[in-house]
Amino acid sequence: MGQDNFTAQKRSSGGLPTSTTGTSNGRAAAGRGYAALPRGRQIQKTFNNIKITILCGFVTILVLRGTIGVGNLGSSDADAVNQNLIEETNRILAEIRSDSDPNDPDEFINGTQINPNVTYTLGPKIANWDAERRAWLQSNPEFPSLVRGKPRVLLVTGSPPKPCDNPIGDHYLLKAIKNKIDYCRLHGIEIVYNLAHLDMELAGYWAKLPLIRKLMLSHPEVEWIWWMDSDAMFTDMVFEIPLAKYDKHNLVIHGYPDLLFDQKSWIALNTGSFLFRNCQWSLDLLDVWAPMGPKGPIREEAGKILTANLKGRPAFEADDQSALIYLLLSQKDQWMEKVFVENSYYLHGYWAGLVDRYEEMIEKYHPGLGDERWPFVTHFVGCKPCGSYGDYPVERCLSSMERAFNFADNQVLKLYGFRHRGLLSPKIKRIRNETATPLESVDQFDIRRHPMQGSS
Amino acid sequence: MGQDNFTAQKRSSGGLPTSTTGTSNGRAAAGRGYAALPRGRQIQKTFNNIKITILCGFVTILVLRGTIGVGNLGSSDADAVNQNLIEETNRILAEIRSDSDPNDPDEFINGTQINPNVTYTLGPKIANWDAERRAWLQSNPEFPSLVRGKPRVLLVTGSPPKPCDNPIGDHYLLKAIKNKIDYCRLHGIEIVYNLAHLDMELAGYWAKLPLIRKLMLSHPEVEWIWWMDSDAMFTDMVFEIPLAKYDKHNLVIHGYPDLLFDQKSWIALNTGSFLFRNCQWSLDLLDVWAPMGPKGPIREEAGKILTANLKGRPAFEADDQSALIYLLLSQKDQWMEKVFVENSYYLHGYWAGLVDRYEEMIEKYHPGLGDERWPFVTHFVGCKPCGSYGDYPVERCLSSMERAFNFADNQVLKLYGFRHRGLLSPKIKRIRNETATPLESVDQFDIRRHPMQGSS
């Protein structure tokens, strides 16, 4: 889900130096394997052929050996077991991955077919949510929307229901959710991790819309729904969102007003990490936001409108981010009063400009700042670790994600007296000796006693 | 971490019919690839040889094609990109996996070398924890050990710092933590997910000991530390542990007193899911439990003692479960008064006997029972999804874990009006139409309003 956001994202960043490099590297690297065959020296070719032919002969001999029944190599047993494991795993993988299910009657009601003449809706119109929610809260005092004076926040993230095309992707999804579990435990935030497609029409980066609506309606006690892409990590474990600052607003999103209104740039805002207040206004915004999303002709056509109206947007199907920007531009008077475009800290931080500066940050600053000195969130736009085709070299993405995770994890491990050996190392080392008076460390290092809020 | 527990576990279950089948299947399956060659019909063989030879010829032709430079297939470009991605990924994987770091001075202080003459300790002796903790709680009223009348519980789980040997393993680690996130959100339990080796000496299934101790000392506000293996899933999302029942106890673990004291069986208790009260008694138990754990000669020697004294235990290095059983048997008077051996519900439930009965349970019973009618926890003992060698066929393990996850997920999705198409399907379908009055569903289906506790 988060990953799907990338394709859109990266194209945008094509303008930035870092990503241009990244992209060109990507192409170059991608090109190499293929370019080798036509060009390259003839001798090389001949050699390869000989090699292959010999290999073939060898294989045949091996098989014959088996038939004639010459004694087996000691290793062949283990090899066979291994082989067998691999085959079984692949079989399961295929089974779990296989998506289309033509005989399934639900395929249709889940709406893979859609009628372009009917405007798509997220569900029956809900008109009186604020009053209904207020009444519910009054009659359910055991589920208050304020906990110890703080509005209740639900962090929502998710990833595709099936294993990643690129297996290492699942490992980084695991690290990314571990990172979110840590931040949310430290700051009293609940988590919903979605692994399902609630709505087949709004697949990919649009899937967050029906999900957010569903969660608002199913968790009336929650004041703010905070969407975060699966490829975004908390890199400042101390920083806290200054919610009081947004008392008069219903949508908080990272971006730049000048890029939005002066340049109409399609990267003026980023939908990788944003907060929605649980209220009628948000439901209304989702209702007008969603109709560009249904996959197929509608999303294709909408894409053309967005590309025609947003600066720097390449031609491709409508994405949720462009659609929101277009909506806020075209219906500015109706919505902007309640939208807070935040850039005083990194509610979303573009990774390419940050991951190489962690050492510098550690040297000069400290957690709790949340801005370019110590980014609150590092978002791996364009990396697609779970998909097969990102916009940056896989190598750069993976090592950068590893660095971001360990940079954040060091802040968590400090309470326990450990840190990673290096920002690229999964291994940890002690930074304090065990003591007989552990509570001193708790009073000193427990992040929960020293939360730092952004300037209100 | 959780996975490492398996090898020990499964051997035990060798006696149970299910696992015997499982194991024999495993062997059979493993054998097949290798056994096929010598036996099998000769014609079959000849056919294979011909096939292989043809294949070889084909490959050679393909390569020649490339050399002669006949136009490239359209796919070759994508293939090259794919190839390149795979290579880069593997390089990173190797980098991240590479463990030994001889030049690292920390290698030593982290204690990979150990002195068998010095008894291993988890850290400086802590003698007065109960009083210190009480004092801390009094001076930190903002971190109460009771929240809304319930003792504060911290669920602890974890997995190895590095990607799984078997890539699909990471996907199931992700599903297993999503499952725990759901249960813990519904029942107000905090989660710590450990991805680090705190102590190189206590690697593998022993790693939970230093981790639990560290967490007790770093989270004085937590009353119960609940360890759960990464391969255990909540399959009853409604059931709640009857903590009041354990007011007089400090360790709650699933098991059978007769197996423990009459038979001295090494599977009398299961350390895949148990609760420790945060108190001096627990620290003391950890101190006497740990010395059998240091890897190398100590663990090897201890293993012999355990095998000699515990019924059914095969000969292998000391594991944490056998060590605990041995300890409670040999020092019964000192410890058992505070140990609650629970089997009125499945604090740990052995998967092989449960996963095939889910349909029957759905038909006859309902969540909230927690026992054989609707198991609270389903634990995939012996599956080792993250390692390469489990004790059951990978296929059986993966599909069983998929079934357990979806069985549990259906209970979570009910609030949102969905369920999985089948217990093996990651895809979901609606079970209710969207309504304009969503709060009715909340009042009806929110698990938090209807928690069911085990009989106190």
From TrEMBL, chains A, B:
GO terms for biological process: xyloglucan biosynthetic process. The keyword Acetylation does not apply. Its EC number is 2.4.2.39. One of its GO terms (cellular component) is endosome. Keywords: Glycoprotein, Glycosyltransferase, Golgi apparatus, Membrane, Signal-anchor, Transferase, Transmembrane, Transmembrane helix. It is a single-pass type II membrane protein. Residues 1-11 have a biased composition (Polar residues). It is found in: Golgi apparatus membrane. Residues 1-33 are annotated as: Disordered. This is xyloglucan 6-xylosyltransferase. It comes from Rubus argutus.
